[in-house]
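Final paragraph of the annual report: two paired records, presented back to back.
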Amino acid sequence: MASSSVITPEDVLESLMNDGTIDALRLKIINQLKANEELKNTTIKMAEQSKVLNTPGAEKQTKRELFDALRQELETPVLEKASKSVWDLILDNNGLGKEISETVEKVFCRLSGQEPPLFPIPNGESQPGTGTEIENYKGKGKEINGEREKEKSNSTSKKRSFSKIHRGEENDLAS
């Protein structure tokens, strides 16, 4: 795109979706959540303190009954804790959040024809992080999802742009 055209957030997001960056970020978030010992320990503690497991007669229930009751009791609080952990990762100015910001800026600059950084760090310091970690994850995501990619290429479905998804144009899939 020429530098005279207006680059919208949707343009940047669509580029990130199409080049595999979103999948790479998703994989990084999942791996960091899996490694989050505090989240694991909190979830275990919640299960141990569960009303379902500590109710007399719980040992007589089937595994399926216990699982369903545990899920009903703990799903919302566990997902709330996981969601908070994800947002902490995304908003972390020294970790993944910084990497996301730098990647988005790099894509915006590429689309607009501008040179990064748009917002230089004071004192002439260079911006650490080149986005190579995301590039590495892109490769891993492609290896993991290789079969899924083959299925997509054989499929007749169309890829929707972010703006169509955002506007809720569900009917585009049918055409």
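The closing record of the year follows.
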Amino acid sequence: MDPTDQSPEEVYSVWALPPEPARGRLRRLMAGLRAAHGGPAFEPHLTVVGAIRLRRADAVEALHAAAAGVRPYTVRVAGDRHGGFYHCGYLLMEPTPEVMAASDHCCGHFGYERPTPYMPHVSLIYGDRTEEEEEEARKKVEELDVDIRGLQFEISELALYTTEPDDVESWESVEVCHLRGSD
């Protein structure tokens, strides 16, 4: 971290990016939910490090250091036959040791302390909904992608995004790191 860097601090998050074809499948699902329920557009992602305020150079440096210590890993939609795969606008992902370790490792490099326990998920839609609307959205997910509970994919990219909490449409990719497999 450069003590002479006087650039303004911004809010950043680290995302694990789904590869194709999972990324396209999630985009279509998200677009279908937005068409039915509104809300802003954003890229499909699994948050690894939550919103943290840093200078850009420090955030990029932390991303590179963190990514160097993470190998590609598999994520799967969690769920049971009672609909537990979808909750409040997101797909719950299985909290496997690999998924949890990747987040813990990255949080350590960013000095990020979680305000709540880590719950891996892929957000599908943002916005406030009543309980009835939330149930409609859950049904819409199943209608748009009947096999969503079987979705799994390998994470091989971590990305740094600006993520100002009150302005989802301003979010933008800053840097992407490709995870390296074992040598």
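Residues 125 and 147 are 19 Å apart (CA to CA). This concludes the annual technical report; the extension proposal builds directly on these records.
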